[in-house]
Every structure is written in C-alpha cells, then in structure tokens.
Amino acid sequence: MSKKLSAKIGPSILNADLSxxxxxxxxxVSNGADYLHLDVMDGNFVPNMTFGHPVVKCLRRKIKxxxxxxxxxxxxxxxxxxxxxxxxxxxxxFHVESAEDVKAVCRKIKETGMKVGVALNxxxxxxxxxEYVDLADMVLVMTVEPGFGGQKFMESQMTKxxxxxxxxxxxxxxxxxxxxxxxxxxxxxxx
Length: 191
Fold this sequence. Notes:
This protein has 191 residues and is α/β, with parallel strands linked by helices. It is built from five helices and eight strands.
C-alpha cells in the first residue's frame, strides 16, 4: 500500500540578497518553509555561478535545525559530495546529465549520510531513472532549464511527474519551477 501523499515547501534562496543571506534564510524557515533549497551553480554545467560549500557551511552554523537541500548544477557532481557533507547538507541533488556514472555518484552520496536526489533536465527522458531509482531517495523534475530564475513554467514536464508517480508510488518527487521548488511528495523526514 502506498503512503499518503503530502506536500512540503522548499523555497530556493537563489534570489536572496546574499549580503543578508542568513536573515533571509532564517525568515523563510520561521515562516514555515519545510526545508531550504540551495542552488549551487558552477558556471560550466550552467552559465551562471552562485555559491559553494563555504557559504553553505557558514549558513549551517547559524541555522542548525533546518533541512538543507543542495541542487548541484555543476559539471563534476562527485567532486563536491564530501565538502557539502562537511558543510552540513542533508540532501544532495545532482543532474544525471552531468555525471559519468550516476550509480557511483549516488553510492558516494549515501556513504556520507546525505539523502540522494537525482535531477532531470527538461530534455532528458524520464525513464532513464529506471537504471538507478533504487539508489535515489527522490527525483527532481526540472520544469525550466537549469541555471536561470524567472523562466516560464514548462507544463509539459508534468507528464514526467505523472509517469514517476504511476511507476514509483512511494518515491519522493520534487518539481523545480524557476527559482522555487515545489515538492510533489516528500513524505519522509530528511534528517
């Protein structure tokens, strides 16, 4: 029997004022955010750059109890697993398009104690997850091209969510729409 579906809100801090990142993040948590979605961009996988593990570590020192989820829009996702685990990240999401060996990256993330999230770009077929879904704790469906905020929602990507729900009824599914993430079914505790 499937578990009951529930929704949680994980706002992205992508458009936060970085000079007051702690204050803006704390405000999100105190106003009901279930977790914080931290978009990490390297300027290679996507053309923009944001911040890395030193900023996440500083934020974690001040916000101890919130769940931190990093959305790694980076060329070499395996390179940043240990630093993000050390920074206090709870869930590490990477793009399957950026990994040479998705299964190996999933295993390495799990070894650190973080939850594993795999993200799919709009052009990536959803059924690629069949190869490694048993190693992932969740799948992130991109409804915009990664790397830029303020894009138009691609409603066509919701067919991926439907396919995932039909084929993996207990899987946590998240939808990333521009600079905000809307989880469709995170029903587990992320700590």
